[in-house]
Amino acid sequence: MFIAPAHPPPLLNADQVLELAQTGYLPLELPPPLIISLQELLRLSTDLFSQDISTKESQFPTAQGTELGYYLVENEKEYLTLRHQYIGDTATTPVSLATAKFWTLAASFLYRILADLSTALDIPLQAWEPLLDGCLGLPTSKAEATPTLLRLFNYFPDAGAAERHTDTGFLTLCIGTASGLQVWRPCLEDSTSPPSGLWIDAGTQPTVLVGKTLQLLSAGRVNAGLHRVMTNPKGRQSVVFALRPSLRHPKLDLAPFGDPSVVNLVDVWKGIRGSVFNVNAQTSIREEQKKRLQEKGWTGSEEGGTAKQVEEDGLA
């Protein structure tokens, strides 16, 4: 099992911790090694997306709905989701070889932020051990995979977008090559519910977003970051690394988080993922999921998945 190391050096100052907790997002500068790895990954993803569809589909077959492999949303975007190392010929593709390094650096970066939030919330770092088991390094096989993922997007000109939503995991690192990602900045002085606010374009600034699982475990002391993707006339690429909970240890004691309960983490994850629709699926699938949720009284817009995809997250 993952063992939490000694508390890593603080990455955020007190004002940044407060900003992230209140708004659910935070623009940040990346450390040089992560920048270098990012640049290489973007270069390689450009080469990958320039190939014909049959090549992309054969190298990275679609699996688990949108949760693994190459996926094309007609007239909107295409993207590659990576959750474990590949074997055979695919293992030696440049993108596959670059993924492991970026994954480790990005996971370490988000872990430092999670540690800073834990300090501010008085949550012991060890509380994250079962929740991050297998997440901080690229899993070696499908059997070892967790819900954590790396996703490479190619949004088509004047087309690719994503409706407003919050992510499902702990923290997400988003980096785009052009404007498109927009984050919702709530007016913290507004006492109405929901508060007023405004949309801010993140541009090419690396941005960290809080997910619904972290909001839940923090008892709402950290807010999930509402965001959306707008079309760009020239199109854009982006790299998204989503740190999500491991499901290897289903029995979760919430005492370190200030709650005397013991819950089944798989059930919690199913509840989060199954209560929202998938903003990255085909239009027809999105609309069907929205219809199903609206019949249950739901009115929002989130990132999620089908019940089958949630069950498979235990690869998941």
Structure description:
The protein has about 325 residues and is an alpha+beta fold. The chain has 9 helices and 13 strands. A 7-stranded antiparallel β-sheet has the order 1-9-6-11-4-3-2. It is globular and about 50 Å long. The C terminus is likely disordered.
Q: Which sheet architecture does the biggest sheet show? A: 7 strands, antiparallel
The secondary-structure element order is: HEHHEEHHEEEEEEHEEEEHHH
Query: Structural class from helices and strands?
Result: alpha+beta
The stretches of 5 or more residues where confidence is low (pLDDT under 50) are 301-316
Q: What Rg is obtained from the alpha carbons, in whole angstroms? A: 18 Å
Q: What is the mean pLDDT? A: 88
Note the overall shape.
globular
Estimated helix fraction: 25-40%
Strand residues, percent: 15-25%
Span between termini: 18 Å
Query: For the largest beta sheet, what order do the strands appear in spatially?
Result: 1-9-6-11-4-3-2
Helical segment count:
9
Record field, number of beta strands: 13
